[in-house]
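User: Can you predict the 3D structure of CCA-adding enzyme? Sequence below.
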Amino acid sequence: MVQEVIGEVLVRIRPNEEERAFIEGLMREIENIARGRAEELGLDIKPYFVGSLAKDTYLAGDHDVDLFMAFPLDTPLEELRGKGLELGKAIAERLDSYEVAYAEHPYVRARYKGVKVDIVPCYDVDSWKDVRTAVDRSILHTKWVLENLHGRNDDVRLLKRFLKGINAYGSEIYVRGFSGYLAEILIIKYGSFLDVLEKADFMLRQKIIDPAGWLKSEPEIAMKTIKREAEGDKPLIVIDPVDPRRNVAANLGWEKFGRFYFKAHQFLEEPLVEFFFPTESTGENYLGELRRKRTHLVTLLFKKPQLVDDLILPQLERSARGFEKALRRENFRVLGWDYGYVGEEAFIMLELDRIVREKITIKPGPEFFTERGWDFYRKNERVWLIGKRLYAEKRVKESIVDVIVELLEKNQVALGKQVREFIHSADILVDYVPGELKREAYLFLSRKKWNLKG
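Assistant: Sure. Here are the predicted structure tokens for CCA-adding enzyme:
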């Protein structure tokens, strides 16, 4: 049964010969353009392809090209940044379109024949000791995987597709899942896709994975890495086989490892294609969920800032957490929150126990014999003592909409810096969302977005 499922999935995720020929030809074209432009600019660089295309671990239809332009180690960092961007633009001008993006240093995002092409400057490193910028390791990662994968490329594809299917793939800070490189390491370490699933329990108990044996060859540095990551309560510590200072699983969160943990067990018990390619839910009625639960949905809908996902999604998450804390202080119980964007509109959803509260709240004050106690006494109309502490009645806004508006006016919600002004002008919707958000609202309220048993 399990082999039948794996065979069916592999047919869908393994690139065919026509696709391979297209990709190989595309990469040769881009490399020739890169070499030619570098020569025209008088630059001594080496072009390297990195990532899943270079390692032949990419999924059918997933064709992001990562071209790294490696400068000599004696190049000053500012020169690498300046000349690297100049070279990236020169290459991209021969492609279809491009834009400048920013990470540790500027790089170029281009498109060519329908494929995304990232052109990134880096140093030409041979060892972790040469690494100067965060991207330099990518060359070493590609080389290590190619030397150690030994034909298990399809096992990597299976693991990647499984992680995508269970919503646990992607090391971005707003995802906190498994990176492609981590998936490759796990296959190399444990042997096959099924072996990795069977080791879910063992991984969690063992905690530390050291594929290159750094604990023996560089014990002091490796132990420093382990101690740092253990203090951060990370589910896994995978010492990078090309750099003992780095945990490959540093961005992996407990929620995404937990999803992998449960889904691995479920698949081994009952292997189904749906783990890799989940079917979309039908009958998505968010109003039915509200009636069933007798809760309320509050949605803040606002214009999406023109930011990349790496920036906007963490900002939205921070803001959603800010609303949860602020509303809790106002005696509203937030049962859950979600965030994201659809098209040009961003949203924050909050599930609440109620949308109206009492007109009066009891406000605790200071001890009566202090200067602050006298100030409290003067400002409030109905004041009494319980022990030596003063208390008073306070009239408050009743409606959740009025409460949120007041909280925003008084800047009493911790919001993401780059989305703050957009949230201040948000529409506040209660127990209603427009058509484009109905599915998001249903997945949020039904918990199908995160349900481990779904």
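DSSP finds 18 helices and 14 strands in the chain. Residues 235 and 254 are 6 Å apart (CA to CA).
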